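Researcher: Quick test of sequence recovery. Tokens follow.
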């Protein structure tokens, strides 16, 4: 923030400017410019913030590009899957599947005495 300059007195300005219109205009300069300097300083601070944000975003974008490049290198080094198929004929194949469960062929019944323990 700029420090407001000391306003010269009307007598000091009258020594420099003989014309009353110019004298009045120069007096107004000391009223307008300090506020404008402060506004410009705020604008410069805003621009600085935007520049820092853009720099951070650019650094992040570069980091992401390096990460993508590293992933591409890893992917390039990955072994390529190749089919070792022996079939030149790609027509559908049909298989006959038999069930794996065993079916009993003969059931034998034995009578047991309920009091006997085996």
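Model:
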């Amino acid at each position: 923030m700029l420090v407001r300059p000391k306003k010269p007195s009307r007598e000091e300005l009258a020594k420099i400017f003989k014309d009353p219109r110019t004298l009045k205009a120069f007096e107004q300069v000391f009223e307008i410019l300090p506020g404008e300097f402060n506004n410009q300083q705020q604008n410069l601070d805003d621009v600085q913030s935007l520049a820092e944000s853009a720099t951070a975003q650019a650094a992040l974008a570069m980091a992401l590009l390096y990460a993508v490049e590293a992933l591409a290198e890893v992917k390039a080094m990955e072994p390529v899957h190749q089919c070792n198929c022996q079939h030149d004929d790609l027509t559908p194949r049909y298989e006959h599947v038999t069930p794996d469960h065993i079916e009993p062929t003969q059931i034998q019944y034995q009578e047991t005495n309920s009091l006997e323990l085996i």
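The mean pLDDT is 78.
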